[in-house]
Amino acid sequence: MEDQRVRPTGPGRSIAVALVGAVSLALIAALTLGGGDDEAKGPDGVETGPVVVSGDGLSEFAGRPGDSAVGRIAPDFDATTFDGQDVLIRPGEGSGYVLAFFAHWCPHCQAEVPKLVEWIGRAGIPAGVEVVAVSTSVRLERGNPPRAWLAGEGWNLEAVRDNEIGTLAKAYGLSSFPYFVVIGTDGRVRNRVGGGLTPEEWSWMLDQAGRSGVVPTGSDTT
To answer: What is the pTM of this model?
Structure first.
């Protein structure tokens, strides 16, 4: 969020009046202009964080065959965990990724996360593949704050915070929740899909994330 400051103008009649006016205006600015920050704070700390995206973003996901993003290089990004630790995602530098975009207020996400936790706990994740949850579209007035929600569901893999305006979600073409982007070890998008996954579909995505080269087309990319 841009730094917004109130700078009183016009000559003050005294130093005391000027100081009181400046303090009053600063308080008003904090209450009116700073409301967005308060909306993103939960009982365990800040629920959104800084995001930097490098590279061309992906087209908005339409959920139809012939996804134009499949085969493209996924953008790099820097984000942070709920504890403020830096996470640098660099597609094409050897790791494959499954990026899982969740909104804490979305009932479909709330149904999907415990299933994923169970499947991952049972079958694990292939070597060279990283599964990263992305918490986005934070609306704390809807309850279920994301940090506490993911922790309560037993999500023990990487989880990063999008910023207040959803920069990361937009860069990856999110159009609904939950939303998954599969990136191969060469950095190319191999699949994008909405939620409601079966164990077989989840296993297939993990397998694809560990691959490179020619990307499946047709029914495999729906």
So the answer is: 0.80
Residue 196 lies in a domain: yes
112: domain CATH number is 3.40.30.10
| Alpha helix segments (H runs only) across 98-198 | 107-123, 146-152, 167-171
Tens of pLDDT along the chain (222 residues) come to 333 333 334 444 333 333 333 333 333 333 333 334 444 664 446 999 999 999 999 999 999 899 999 999 999 999 999 999 999 999 999 999 999 999 999 999 999 999 999 999 999 999 999 999 999 999 999 999 999 999 999 999 999 999 999 999 999 999 999 999 999 999 999 999 999 999 999 999 999 999 999 887 644 444
Would you say residue 185 lies in a domain? yes
Residues 135 and 52 in one domain: yes
Mapped onto helix, strand or coil, the DSSP state of residue 215 is coil
| DSSP β-bridge partners for residue 24 | none
For residues 164 and 193, membership in a common domain is answered with: yes
